[in-house]
Amino acid sequence: MNRRQQSWLLAAALAVLAPLAFDLPAWLCITSLLILSWRALTLWRRLPVPAHGLLLLLALAGVITIAAHYHTLFGRDPGIALLLLLLALKLMEANSLRDGHAAALLCYFLMLCQFPYAQSMVSAAMTLIAVVLTTAALVLLHHPRQAAPLRLAASMLAQAALFMLLLFVLFPRIEGPLWGLPGDAYAGLTGLAETMTPGSISRLSRSEAIAFRAEFSTRQPPQDALYWRGPVLSRFDGSSWSAGRPDTGSTLPYATRGGASDYTVTLEPHDKLWLFALELPGVIPADGLITRDYQLLAKAPVRARLRYAMRSYPEIFAGRDESPENLRQARQLPLGANPRARLLAQAWRAESGDDGPALVRRMLDYYRSQDFSYTLNPPLLAENSIDAFLFESRRGFCEHYAASFVFMMRAAGLPARVVTGYQGGEINPVDHTLIVRQSDAHAWAEVWTRERGWWRVDPTAAVAPSRIEKNLAAALPENGPLLLLARPAFLWLHEMRFRWEALANAWNQQVLGYNPRRQREFLSSLGMATPDWQRMVTVLGVLSSLLLCAFSAWVLVERGQSRDPLQAAWNRLSNKLAGRGPRRVGARGMARQNWEGPQDYAKRIGSALPEIAGEIFIIAELYQALRYGPVANPRKVQELNTLIRRLKP
Amino acid sequence: MSPAAELRQRFFNWALRGRALEAAPIILNQRRVFVLPTRFGLAFAVLLLVMLIGAVNYQLSLGYALVFLLAGLGIVAIFHSFRNLAQLRISPGRAAPVFAGETARFELILDNPGNREKSALSLHLPGQSPVTIDVPARASVIVPLELPAPSRGWLSLPVVSLQTSFPLGLIRAWAYAAPMLRCLIYPAPALVVTALPMRPLEGSGAAIADVGMEDFAGLRSHQISDPIAHVAWKTAARLEHGPLLSKQFDAAMAQSLWLNWDDLPGALGVEARLSLLARWICDAHQAGAFWALSLPGANFPLAGGAAHFHACLKALALHE
């Protein structure tokens, strides 16, 4: 390989490395970058490449470090890390065409390796750049004198895109995974956890990542009614809240009533079972279940973007016939902890008796009357966290309010539980979907009374009503630690983000969310009746054959392209004089012989066919002037053609 | 013939069926151009399969897109490789005669009538290393193909295979062509030089002693074929870095020879006789002498110059 070929391969490798740099450990990316830069330096300054032994040593050190970093050499991430190292070292000593081939194949494979981490439009664009560069490097490998490898690669890829489009739409999609994925496959997904400890939701609230999107087909309920129900936590061990036994069913445990809202949820993968719906869900999605405490669950962890249609009834009375066992669970408290809170609750109980609503009112009044504040940065609370929060710090996030409220209700003898989920959301004015982010994560409470069953009480609303009516940014003090984008001062950025996210949503739905189900839906919307895989393969076969025919025609037709209009006209004259077309060349001996120049030819024709001698000499004169004159005037060529056409031999 | 060679021969016969004699120009139309994946192309296909399985397993929509794009690239490469070779016109060029034991150079004229360069075409002759060239759009290129010439007589250009794996190396397009082109191979001149069989010009007076050394006519720059004795050494010594010069003599006055097949010693075989005659003709030509040649079945009267030289050697080459 010459320097130019090596440089192009190097550029391709850099383009492959760029998107991976976000996801692989920094030391690995920097090492690979250093090796590639070293190679670039040896190429540009024509320095000798390092010795084979040194490279071997480097490779060994790299493998050991990777093993130490991941604690294994097997699995997806260490595998990708090893391949990247291999590519960098391979380019260092690549000399033969074979080495170039190996490097190009490695480049193509590593492009795939970034997709488990990110499949955004940005990563697609970066991959496209890498594909073009790698292909251009391949072109140069096989044609070192190629002047414009980039142009050829781009035009070939543009043609390949036609096949990609066909295959992408029609290749029968298979529901993965084909086998068990390595354990690290879903690391790094965020979302609500199974348990709630003080600080868990406020941590989540700092993330602007999208939890899910909802598109309403009926009127969207008001902002303060958007309670997206997630894990219901009824067990308390003194410090953390957790879900009870997952007692699931496939029928609704309550009767629907009142008005309903219809919407579609597109849930981002979070590696948990939770499906989110407005309280309370009126249908159970396909492949879904509902728990005894009215939470929707998927049958398998949500590891790919999931879309489901949902209908919710805000006015349902649920749980009036709750089982005594569940009620006992909803009154359970760990013994001994938080004595001050217990005392206060028992005092209220003595005053209000069994009147649930009165107890709730007293507790909410207590939040309002004391100087409680709402903050993302509550102080760390030691043992007896409820006591410490209610009587000392009085600064907390929604999980503190929900936890203390449920504790007080239970201490007062009222069945109560914590519900986590998301509250609110933001309408994207560009595509009118409701975007619910991790920062909308919320915790609230449910209490049970004999008359109403379970009903929702949100103690945060008592302290920071704007959190519920508007959003988190409105509820927090101006100088609080909130993400920049959520502040009103950055409205224009906010606006840009809306546009970007609307585009990203379309991308997610149309491109990334093109799974077996969406493929069937899309194909039947195009008019394919019962799109099963046989039919898809048939249509794919027919359409790709058509495309192949078009390409063949394009390749074969090239012969028909005329070379030079002047030459074509001159040949036409010869053919005309030869009799009937090119097949009978020489039939009358009047065709121009290969060795005859225009003058000789005209002379020969003139003596053989004196009746057209004059015309022939004019034509030959004109042809000569055009052929050997300074500039061929297109109009003159036209004139020559006319003369030849009018000639009657 | 080994089974592989026989198979190859059969394939040639099939690929070139019905065109034993190929008239110029040979146009590589779609029936003559074959395409098959290269080893790299096969590796690429296997890689794509692995990538497809990865995309299915991890449910990567963009992974599918990437695999399909690359698969499309592979398909498009077939057409590009095909087009890179198709419609090429091949005409035989010159093949200057050489002596046996030298390398024959066959010139092929490749003409590209299309509007696109035909890049990285490599021409293979059996047993020779390939020659790789580009043929620019609407242009023609002369490609010299070299082949060892072991024995005298006509050496026909064997079947030439034209290959290209342009643009990506995934697909190889190739075609076979057998243009009518042959090279005349003269007998190798004998290495052992016997004295030239001098004979006085018939009808003229005394013999002239030194062959071609009379009547110094001038100097010219030294040609490799000039006899070493004619080098103007004195001049060369004077002009230290100047060109080597040869002394020229007036040929009209040079000695004449009569080369007769039958005068040669009877112990010599046919090839040895031809070889010796070739040596004498070469020496006589170099010396600027006149000579006549008499072979069984052919007689060349006394003459000199390049045309006579080649005519005589041709007769030797084709002597059966």
Describe it.
The complex is a heterodimer of chains A (649) and B (320). Chain A has 649 residues and is α+β, with helices and mostly antiparallel strands. Chain A has 4 domains: 3-170, no CATH class; 195-478, no CATH class; 516-558; 565-646, no CATH class. Helices cover 50% and strands 12% of the residues of chain A. Chain A contains 23 helices and 18 strands. In chain A, the strands form 4 sheets. In chain A, strands 1, 3, 4, 8, 14, 17 and 18 form a 7-stranded antiparallel beta sheet that branches. In chain A, strands 11-6-2-16-15 form a 5-stranded antiparallel beta sheet, with no helix packed on it. In chain A, strand 17 (441-449) and strand 18 form a beta hairpin. Residues 580-587 of chain A have low confidence and may be disordered. Chain B is of the alpha+beta class and 320 residues long. Chain B has 2 domains: 8-185, no CATH class; 250-317, no CATH class. In chain B, the strands form 5 sheets. Chain B has a 5-stranded antiparallel beta sheet. Chain B has a 4-stranded antiparallel beta sheet with strand order 1-3-5-8, with no helix packed on it. A 3-stranded mixed beta sheet of chain B has the order 4-12-9. Chain B is elongated. Chains A and B meet through helix 5, helix 6, helix 7 and helix 19 of A and helix 2 and helix 3 of B.
Condensed summary:
The complex is a heterodimer of chains A (about 650) and B (about 325). Chain A is α+β, with helices and mostly antiparallel strands and about 650 residues long.
Indicate the mean pLDDT of chain B: 81
Main beta sheet strand tally, sense and closure of chain A: 7 strands, antiparallel
> Strand percentage of chain A, roughly?
5-15%
What is the approximate shape of chain A?
elongated
Q: How far apart lie the N and C ends of chain B?
A: 26 Å
Helix vs. strand class of chain B: alpha+beta
Q: Total number of helical segments of chain A?
A: 23
Helix-strand topology string of chain B: HEEHHEEEEEEEEEEEHEEHEEH
In percent, how much strand structure appears in the residues of chain B?
25-35%
Measured distance between first and last alpha carbons of chain A: 61 Å
**Uncertain residue ranges of chain A:** 580-587
- Per DSSP E runs of 2 or more residues, the count of β-strands of chain B stands at 17
Number of E-type strands of chain A: 18
Q: Which bin fits the share of residues in helices of chain A?
A: 40-55%
Biggest β-sheet strands, sense, barrel of chain B: 5 strands, antiparallel
**How many domain modules of chain A?**
4
What share of residues of chain B is helical?
A: 25-40%
Number of helices of chain B: 6
Shape estimate of chain B: elongated
Class of secondary structure makeup of chain A: alpha+beta
Strand order of the largest sheet of chain B: 2-11-10-6-7
